[in-house]
Amino acid sequence: MLVDNEHTPSRERAAASSPGDVTEWRRRQRRMLLVRRKALSPTWRHHAEILTLSHIESVLDGLPQGPMGFYWPINGEVDLRYLAAMIRAQGRVTALPVVVAEREPLEYWRWESEGEVAPGVWDIPIPLRRCLIVPAATFVPLLGFDEDGHRLGYGAGYYDRTFAALQPRPLLIGVGLEVGRMRTIRPQAHDIPMDAIVTEAGVHQRSGKKEVRDD
């Protein structure tokens, strides 16, 4: 299912729109996407999450061998906490993103267990201790996404600032549901595309230097 029913080709719409037009358009799309995602039945959501997790597990061996970034699920995002626990049991390091200052890049802090967290900004759980990690690969929650790998988040821009600043930049794996698929998010210069996107439909690889291998 594709969001955005306007008929003008996506590249022409993006070029013709002013920044203010794009901002308002994205605001409307976010509201629509959130309503659509929250309307999913618990049974359907559970089935979709199982499929999404299975697709992620199928490519784990092809990801960089280093610390792995995760996220704490909110607003109906795909829950990867089971996967994080499984990876830690294999001896790998996991980390969670932390808001440390308004409109500044996130920090990734080492995440040692699901229970060792405390409320952070917006009451989203964060690790108890600040132990900075630069992930080799990180999972990023998606509200919306397009065929070029661009993601639509909640609008604050934290992830884009973070990935612009992190060196080396980790492999970026967006995680979402097919109800978030769009023709375009109307990407701007600051929007950093994902290297791959995983949904219940499978792994969608973006062409480029970085690769997610299905071994």
Distance between the termini: 29 Å
What's the story with the biggest beta sheet?
Answer: 7 strands, mixed
Q: Can you tell me the overall shape?
A: globular
The gyration radius over C-alpha positions equals 17 Å
Contiguous low-pLDDT stretches (5 residues minimum) are 1-16
Mean pLDDT: 88
Give the second-level CATH assignment, the architecture: 3-Layer(aba) Sandwich
CATH superfamily: NagB/RpiA/CoA transferase-like
CATH topology term: Rossmann fold
Helix content: 25-40%
Structural category? alpha/beta
> Biggest sheet, strands in spatial order?
3-2-1-6-9-10-11
The CATH class turns out to be Alpha Beta
Order of secondary-structure elements: HHHEHEEEEEEEHEEE
Number of helices: 5
Total individual domains: 1
Overview of the structural elements:
By secondary structure, the chain is α/β, with parallel strands linked by helices. The protein has a single domain, classed as Rossmann fold. The chain is built from five helices and eleven strands. It has helices at residues 10-16, 19-38, 42-59, 81-89, 158-165; strands at 68-69, 94-98, 107-110, 117-119, 125-127, 137-141, 144-145, 151-152, 171-175, 196-199, 202-205. The protein has a seven-stranded mixed beta sheet with strand order 3-2-1-6-9-10-11. Strand 2 (94-98) and strand 3 (107-110) form a beta hairpin.
